[in-house]
Design goal:
Blueprint: H1 2-10, H2 13-17, H3 28-38, E1 42-45, H4 52-57, H5 59-78, E2 85-89, E3 103-104, H6 115-135, E4 142-147, E5 150-151, H7 161-170, E6 175-177, E7 187-188, H8 189-205, H9 207-210, E8 212-216, H10 226-236, E9 243-245, E10 257-258, H11 261-267, H12 275-290, H13 296-305
Parallel strand pairs: 1-2, 2-4, 3-10, 4-8, 5-7, 6-9
Length: 306
């Protein structure tokens, strides 16, 4: 969290644009007080334990945060005396994945073998239950959003390929790759955020039509593995990432592919950034960060929406 705080505090956002408070999603009373006082028009729920490996290490915290935290938020929203639009960000890993290279649609079965995936599937089911039972008749919009593997600046999480590569470069250490042949729907962070913002406005205007689940995945048809990402960074940016492949001792799905036709048809959204350009933006961000150019996030946002 220290790196994220540093970026936030170095921009003008914390002084002029944002009111910023920290709360534990499991602290019902504090969260209730915050939401009642702020009276938000939109709520984007991204508070989660978001790492597969960490979910194996601490499944209890993962389930508590991703399930009970979601229940806390929805229970609070159910009791509000004003209307708000609710966007629950879950994961592409909420689908029941048999590693058969299936392309997942929004109405496919939910599930998960690891604690993280199953917790996100539960969050999806819980959100749908609250919408059908409580929010639908009040015409309050609630959507769940399932994005692929997001890449971009200011990600410092462990056991994620881009942050691991950055650490290996700047600390001059060998990169340990767990699942070199595993593929993911890699996509640029601003493409995903843009899709979220479009959906939020649509859900608010027509909650009965736009509530429900939505996929946000990359537009390219080629499937890229973890090794492809490492090779691209080595070959394109003249970095020499020393790497070794470690046989994983924990299960992770081998392949994930999202069908985003629904978002394209009804939201007029598509991921416009190619994988190569996404990696360029990402590597540029970290390069500028280590040069103490903390305005790089705002620069990239302005360039994206120009």
């Amino acid at each position: 969290m220290d790196n994220k705080k540093k970026i936030f505090n170095k921009t003008f956002l914390n002084k002029t644009k944002c009111k910023f408070n920290y709360y534990d999603i499991l602290d019902y009373n504090s969260l209730l007080k915050c939401i009642k006082n702020f009276k938000p028009n939109y709520i984007f729920h991204l508070a989660a334990q978001s790492l597969v490996i960490d979910s194996y290490k601490n499944p209890n915290l993962t389930f508590q945060t991703n399930i009970n935290g979601t229940i806390n938020l929805l229970e609070i929203c159910k009791k509000l005396n004003f209307k708000t639009t609710i966007l629950i960000i879950t994961s592409d890993k909420c689908y029941l994945n048999s590693n058969n290279k299936k392309i997942f649609n929004e109405d496919d079965k939910l599930g998960g073998s690891d604690p993280y995936s199953s917790s996100k599937a539960c969050a999806e089911i819980i959100s749908n239950s609250y919408y059908e039972s409580f929010f639908k008749k009040k015409k309050i919009g609630l959507a769940t959003l399932r994005a692929g593997n997001v890449i971009g600046g200011n990600d410092w999480s462990k056991n994620r390929i881009i942050p691991d590569i950055i650490r290996s470069i700047y600390k001059k250490k060998t990169l340990v790759i767990r699942n070199s042949k595993h593929s993911r729907p890699w996509q640029f962070i601003l493409d995903v955020i843009f899709g979220y913002l479009i959906l939020a406005t649509k859900v608010k205007l027509r909650p009965s039509f736009f509530s429900g689940s939505w996929n946000f995945g990359p537009s390219y048809s080629k499937i890229y593995s973890v090794k492809n990402i490492v090779d691209k960074i080595n070959n394109t940016y003249n970095f020499k990432v020393r790497s070794k492949i470690k046989k994983p001792d924990l299960y992770e799905a081998k392949s994930l592919i999202l069908n985003s036709k629904k978002s394209k048809k009804y939201l007029n959204w598509r991921a416009k950034t190619s994988l190569d350009k996404s990696l360029t933006y990402t590597m540029q961000w970290y390069k500028e960060y280590f040069k103490k150019n903390y305005s790089i996030s705002l620069q990239q946002i302005k360039r994206y929406f120009k």
